[in-house]
Design goal:
heterodimer, A: mainly alpha, Fumarate Reductase Cytochrome B subunit, two-stranded antiparallel ribbon, 57% helix, B: Sulfite Oxidase, Chain A, domain 2, 2 domains, five-stranded antiparallel sheet
Chain lengths: 253, 248
């Protein structure tokens, strides 16, 4: 009869901890619903600007061909507000635009609550259980040029394999840290900067992000990067053992 | 032997967040004012409303700009209720517009000691406020304009609002109806505006009188005002499919 494993030789747990699993999946669902409603909201006004304000009668930074509202020309003749030739103008809309923001906005904000609350629970637990220090922050040795270069080469040569438990590679750690401690916080803050009630109480947000329309544009770029992270994350999961990763994040303890 | 701590930082934080979350949920569930119509989206809107009321300053002013910051300003939604081809055509509006709004009057009713009809001259005799603010449309665009008008709080006090009042309801010529709570009604920047960018309010932007609620999204700033009704209870217009409170 083989001896029972002791603590010293027990293999690393294959599954993630229950609080990681729960926050991971609640976060995933709310993130996907945020992307879905976010795309709908962007389709209503697919023009992005830089600065305090921007609208159909002011120049755009760029415009996305993602709905019938793209470059629509349904406006009455412009009427200047002031006398000089370069006066700002007013024009009335004569075009029936695509607009599903009634449910789009409410769905976005409902899931923003779920996402932010889940994220806060995750971050606080991760800090207190040392999950951040032990598993997420790369060690000094890992951050050496050789180590990073080797991990990069492994990714390029598709040699990344499944490792039991939360033992992440250095690039994996770095991307998780950038998402958790930079991209998500900036996305949340730029989202709040679009709220008239939040910016009345917290005008520093308008200063920090160069205005509400700049915040909207930054919110868009952050969302694009988060979607990119999501896609690469799923690709890496599939490449390095989809079934085992899925088990580790669900039924395996 | 290490003394066992009764209150650790962890339990303190967990307790704190749970308490805050429970309090906000309690306010949402307890608040009898806003119906959810069985929709989880409206329940989410109500949670946002209660959270913003609990967590944000009720008196903080929205950022004000200078005259040089004024931008072009699209007119959307109803742009002329006096147009016979408009689906929200109003004969009354067409007539008063034909008379340059000289016979236009704002009716102030409901839970006030002195209900009455205010002509434009009556309104202009009340204290005036001019502000250059940002209009944020739910669609995603925004614009800066200068608004001149009477603070809603001044009108409500002039009419002798009762202390039990909780909502101010607005009715417009284009059939639009909406309401705001007392916090927004008494916010110093909440105006009944009759001037835009130094001139009388243009028809496209709601002549002769429109509401400005600077702490909410643009669609709360109703145009073409006809009637203001103060109530103790929330007047339920049914689920429009849009959030009633749009501080976000």
């Amino acid at each position: 009869m083989p001896p029972l494993p002791t603590d010293a030789i027990r293999p690393a747990p294959a599954g993630h901890r229950p609080w990681v699993k729960t926050t991971h999946w609640v976060g995933t669902i709310s993130f996907l619903l945020l992307v879905f409603s976010g795309v709908e909201i962007l389709m209503v006004h697919p023009r992005l600007y830089w600065g305090q304000v921007g609208n159909d009668l002011t120049p755009a930074l760029f415009e996305l061909p993602i709905s019938r509202n793209y470059h629509h020309g349904g406006w009455t003749a412009s009427q200047p507000f002031f006398d000089p030739a370069r006066s700002p103008v007013s024009a009335g809309r004569t075009y029936d635009i695509f607009n599903q923001n009634g449910w789009g906005r409410s769905l976005h904000f409902l899931n923003a609550w779920v996402f932010v609350v889940t994220g806060l629970i995750y971050l606080l637990t991760a800090l207190y259980t040392q999950h951040v220090r032990r598993n997420l922050l790369p060690g000094r040795r890992e951050m050496s040029f050789r180590s990073v270069a080797r991990d990069f080469a492994d990714h390029v040569r598709r040699r990344v394999v499944f490792v039991k438990g939360p033992q992440y590679g250095v690039l994996q750690k770095l991307s998780y840290c950038v998402v958790l401690f930079f991209l998500i916080p900036v996305t949340v803050l730029t989202g709040l900067t679009m709220s008239p009630a939040v910016t009345a109480s917290n005008p520093w947000l308008l200063t920090l992000f160069f205005g509400a329309q700049s915040a909207r544009t930054l919110h868009f770029f952050c969302a694009v990067l988060l979607i990119l992270f999501f896609v690469v994350h799923v690709i890496m999961i599939v490449r390095s053992g989809f079934r085992r990763h899925l088990r580790a994040m669900t039924i395996e303890s | 032997m290490k003394k066992k701590q009764l209150i650790t930082r962890r339990t303190a934080l967990i307790t704190g967040f749970t308490a805050l979350g429970s309090y906000l949920l309690y306010r949402t569930v307890k608040s009898p004012a806003m119906p959810t119509y069985g929709s989880i989206l409206r329940a989410g809107d109500n949670f946002t409303y209660e959270a913003q009321r609990a967590l944000l300053s009720k008196r903080a002013l929205a950022k004000e700009y200078s005259r040089g910051d004024i931008t072009s300003f699209p007119a959307v939604g109803t742009i002329d209720p006096g147009d016979e081809k408009s689906p929200v055509f109003s004969k009354d509006y067409a007539l008063t517009r034909h008379h340059d709004f000289s016979d236009w009057k704002l009716s102030v009713e409901g839970r006030v000691a002195r209900p009455g009809q205010y002509s434009m001259a009556d309104l202009q005799r009340l204290p005036v406020r001019t502000q250059i603010t940002r209009h944020s449309c739910e669609e995603g665009w925004s614009a800066i304009g200068e608004w001149t008008g009477v603070p809603l709080s001044q009108l409500l006090q002039h009419a002798g609002i009762y202390p039990t009042a909780r909502f101010v309801n607005f009715y417009a010529y284009d059939g639009y109806q909406d309401s705001i709570d007392m916090i927004d009604a008494f916010h110093p920047q909440t105006l009944l505006a009759y001037g835009m960018n130094g001139k009388p309010l243009p028809v496209q932007h709601g002549a002769p009188l429109r509401l400005r609620v600077e702490t909410q999204i643009g669609y709360k700033s109703m145009k073409y005002l006809k009637r203001v009704v103060v109530t103790d209870e929330y007047v339920d217009p049914g689920d429009s499919g849009w959030a009633w409170y749009t501080g976000i």
